Amino acid sequence: VGILSRTVTSLDLRDNRMDDQEAHILAGVLSECLSLTSLNLAGNRITASGVTSIAEALTTNTSHAHSVSVLDVSRNRLSNELTTIATAVSNIILIGCLKALSLNSALSFEEDGAELVTAFDPNMEPSAIMLTELRLRGNRLAASFAASLHNVIVKCPYLELIDLSANMFFCEDG
Question: What pLDDT does 126 receive?
Fold first, then answer.
């Protein structure tokens, strides 16, 4: 880990079939990665619990908490977990300088969209959230999510891009 933890700026671990156990191990290593600016964990088997551990590791060390600007946890199994999506995402968005968050095809149930909105705590200071991109492509988001999207936008004053493509929004009443 040593020298690499001080020089690696981008870590791509997508499609490695990592699960929560490996995510917890990775979290321990990430706390030493002082130069990391981009982390791609797309296409693994990480649940909300593993994502929470990673987010906590990235926010624990204040010397680098402000450097991770891109996080991709798309195509993971964030749903149906004891640790909620809201907990995982609220930990993620607190990463000091996170600008781009990808959760493409990571939400399995209609309720996950409503839970995601609760991650943007109304008591949280909007200036603390630096997100400029939020990618939610290919999730099963209900029409109620689109209606509550205003709450996310209000909490993210720097947000420039929201990708909601391929969600096939549907009405809960039929």
Answer: 66
Top-confidence residue, 22 or 31 = 22
Q: What is the mean pLDDT of residues 87-111?
A: 81
Q: Is the dihedral of CA 94, 169, 78, 1 positive or negative?
A: negative
Three-state SS annotation for the chain: CHHHHHHCCEEECCCCCCCHHHHHHHHHHHCCCCCCCEEECCCCCCCHHHHHHHHHHHHHCCCCCCCCCEEECCCCCCCCCCCCHHHHHHHHHCCCCCCEEECCCCCCCHHHHHHHHHCCCCCCCHHHCCCCEEECCCCCCEHHHHHHHHHHHHHCCCCCEEECCCCCCECCCC
Rounded to two decimals, what is the model's pTM? 0.86
